[in-house]
C-alpha cells in the first residue's frame, strides 16, 4: 500500500507533520482533508515496500494543489 505524508513549515524542511493519505492505485490519486499550517507544504511518498521518496518541492498553501506533486512523489518513491 502506497501512501503520502504531509508536512509544512515556514521554509521547506517539513518540520511539522500533519498526517498521511493512502494512494488510490486505480485512479493514481490521493486526498488529504486535514488542516496544514504552512505557509509551505511538502510531502514524502512511500511505496508498498515502505521505500520513501525525497521531500517534494515546497508549495505555498495559497496555491497548493496536491495533484500537481503526486506523480513526482510516486516516481521518486519507485526509484528508491
What do these coordinates show?
The protein is an alpha+beta fold and 80 residues long. Helix content is 18%, strand content 29%. The chain has a 4-stranded antiparallel sheet. A hairpin with a 6-residue loop joins strand 1 (3-9) and strand 2. The longest helix has 14 residues, at 66-79. The two termini are 16 Å apart. The mean pLDDT is 80.
What Rg do the Cα atoms give? 12 Å
Residue share in β-strands: 25-35%
**Largest sheet features:** 4 strands, antiparallel
Q: How many strands?
A: 4
Class computed from helices, strands and strand pairing: alpha+beta
Total helical segments? 1
SSE ordering = EEEEH
The helix content, as a percent range, equals: 10-25%
Q: Which of globular, elongated, flat, extended, rod-shaped describes the shape?
A: globular
Rounded mean pLDDT score: 80
Query: In which order are the strands of the major sheet placed?
Result: 2-1-3-4
**First CA to last CA: what distance?**
16 Å
Low-confidence segments, ≥5 residues, pLDDT <50? Answer: none
What are the defining features of this structure?
80 residues, alpha+beta, single chain, 1 helix
Please outline the helices and strands.
Layout lengths: L2 E7 L6 E7 L17 E7 L12 E2 L5 H14 L1
Antiparallel strand pairs: 1-2, 1-3, 3-4
Amino acid at each position: 500500500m502506497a501512501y503520502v505524508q504531509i508536512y509544512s513549515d515556514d521554509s521547506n524542511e517539513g518540520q511539522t507533520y500533519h498526517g498521511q493519505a493512502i494512494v488510490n492505485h486505480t485512479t493514481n490519486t490521493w486526498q488529504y482533508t486535514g488542516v496544514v499550517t504552512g505557509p509551505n507544504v511538502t510531502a514524502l511518498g512511500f511505496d508498498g515496500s515502505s521505500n520513501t521518496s525525497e521531500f517534494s518541492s515546497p508549495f505555498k498553501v495559497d496555491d497548493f494543489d496536491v495533484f500537481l506533486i503526486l506523480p513526482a512523489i510516486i516516481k521518486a518513491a519507485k526509484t528508491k
